Amino acid sequence: MTPDQMRDASLLELFRMEAEAQTQVLDAGLLVLERDPTHAGQLEACMRAAHSLKGAARIVGLDEGVNVAHVMEDLLVAAQEGSLRLQSDHVDALLQGSDALLRIGQVGLSAEQQAQLSEHVVAVVTRLQTVFGATVSSQAKVPTVPPPKPPAPSVEAPLPVTERSPTHEPAQDMNAEPANEGRGRVLRVSAQRLDHLLDMSGKSLVEFQRIKPLSESLARLKRMQATTRRALDGLREATLESSMDVQAQALLGESRGLLAECQQMLMQHMEAFDEFAWQGEKRTQALYDAALTSRMRPFADVLSGQVRMVRDLARSLGKQVRLEVEGDSTQVDRYVLERLESPLTHLLRNAVDHGIENPEQRINGGKAAEGSIRLSARHHAGMLVLELRDNGGGVDLERLKRSVRERKLSTPETIAQLSEEELLAFLFLPGFSMREQVTEVSGRGVGLDAVMHEIRQLRGSVRMQQQAGQGSVFIIEVPLTLSVVRSLVVEIGAEAYAIPLAHIERMVRLEQEQIVQLEGRQHFWHENRHVGLIAASQLLQKAVGNDQQDGIPVVLINDRDMLYGLTVERFVGERTLVVMPLDSRLGKVRDVSAGALLDDGTPVLILDVEDICSSIGKLLGSGNLQRVDSREKQARGRARKRVLVVDDSLTVRELERKLLLSRGYDVAVAVDGMDGWNMLRAESFDLLITDIDMPRMDGIELVSLVRRDSRLQSLPVMVVSYKDREEDRQRGLDAGADYYLAKASFHDEALLDAVQVLIGDAQE
């Protein structure tokens, strides 16, 4: 590229940046003027933006941009002078002009794309002149030949789309401080450098925390010196009454003097160290806060294109919708803002298309013809809370039930008993849509499930509420920044792990009596629902550590409408951690999202809760679950022998369980052969007691599977059955049973005596 071409490319880049800034001013002002055509401030702002773009386009040599901006400027001047009153059609034409100016500022267009752009500009200028008719006094002429093409790179870029990303930032306000923070110079700094600065300041903050243990060590040293001083004083008092020689007494006195000098020196150094630690901690925290603040942007940055999108979509659907925003100055991390763009767009389009009714329907329902969508942003407990509320018709629950039933997502009996909250949860399922026909806006089943996924990726949550006929509200909570994360630090396999608080429902401690066994899985009751228990050590493939605490620590994690209990070894406590991304060469590490350092410098892995829930699903499908209380059994050194009772009769099952418990055996129960087989593969037992006639898998088949399994073939097996014919007894023994007991002749001592013969006493 020649020097002239480089200069031209640089000028085009400057024009593009100015076009992004000025077209944002135009879009915002025109949307205000559509509601208040005589707003003097916005008329002046829009006119000056068009005027600035005309001058910039002339300097760069973009004749097309000069023509479009000139027409827009003259029309806005006419509106200022009162010779023209802006209507919706006028605003449409001016918005098209704004879009054209942004397209003209793009670089790297191919010859074909440049020709398309020229045709588009001609159409825009023609429409501007046609809409305003005789009012237009502009001397601008429609270009008949395309202007010289700007220099294009070797790789052809596609023709830019009209809709702009709300993350574009004005060139003159790149990384600027808010207006109320002074009028200092504005510098352009790349996002990568800001990220690096934040990473380094975060590491400095964490590293400085390691001073605390050193300070505590110095305090211990001071106490040890004081103890030594007292010991020497006692020794001196004792020697005064003895006949210790003069040399020994001198050495003792010298030792006391040196120790006093050491104490004095340590005192001075500790005072200086404490001052250094206090000042250093304050400065490293201030450095981190300043670096973090430099990444923060006002929430308004994500809204620059949303207001326009709502307006255009509503007009295309024949609706009248007003978007109101509260808290647009709320500061949020730049990265979080970028990730919020897509879910907010989904929710706003959903509100316009599904929520707000047509003007006729609203009037018939006693509402104003114009619907409203209110989007508010605020800080709460280190989180960004967004509420998107519309005053539309809400969700038709009967229609929703019908859609659920037609898609066979649940049985009619269950659907009839679902609460409103449970019904609304179906809207977040992948592929779910209440639209019967596919349109450009909806009906493809893509929407709320994508919103849920994006918000989960931000370590946040989203929930929906609605009132029939009055509208709906979506409440989103995401961290203000992903650079730090509030987490619960737990111990798994004698190592520290962090679980983001946003995904934690509750922390509890369970006693063994609260855990129930059902179909090979362990559960406990929490707020009137069964919650499955999974050992975190099994998920992460860690050896189970020793835990001396009372009860089993359980972390309840939520994933959409699912709730799981994750058992850990110890709750360490809540921490605010500086996130340290894993090395990209590692790729995606299963169940882990990032790393961090604790206050004492101990490394900790931050768990990826979505991955964890996916791993739980796979583990449940395998049927190879470990007992979450297995460490309790290990701690007791397998003091009691374990017996598995398999019977489909609740009465028989409970009778046998209580008899065995009374003799000191540890007893587990299964409801049929399949349940028993799953438990045998997942856990260790000393004896199997099984019935024969059971659903899914009978006792004969179960015994046969046990005898063919290399790990279980030596397990003692007792069959207890109502069938007491000799051929039935022989069939059970031929299958591999060691003992056959008929229920007809069943009594307490007969069962217990048989168990005693097979495995001995309960205590090893």
What labels would you give this structure?
Four Helix Bundle (Hemerythrin (Met), subunit A), 5 domains, 23 helices, six-stranded mixed beta sheet, alpha/beta, about 45% helix
Walk me through this protein's architecture.
The protein is α/β, with parallel strands linked by helices and 764 residues long. The protein folds into 5 domains: 3-154, Up-down Bundle (Four Helix Bundle (Hemerythrin (Met), subunit A)), CATH 1.20.120.160; 191-297; 312-479, Heat Shock Protein 90, CATH 3.30.565.10; 484-630, OB fold (Dihydrolipoamide Acetyltransferase, E2P); 638-759, 3-Layer(aba) Sandwich (Rossmann fold), CATH 3.40.50. The chain is 47% helix and 18% strand. It contains 23 helices and 23 strands. The strands form 5 sheets. The protein has a 6-stranded mixed sheet with strand order 10-14-15-13-12-11. It has a 5-stranded mixed sheet with strand order 2-4-5-7-6, with helices on one face. Strand 6 and strand 7 form a beta hairpin. The longest helix has 50 residues, at 246-295. It is flat and about 110 Å long.
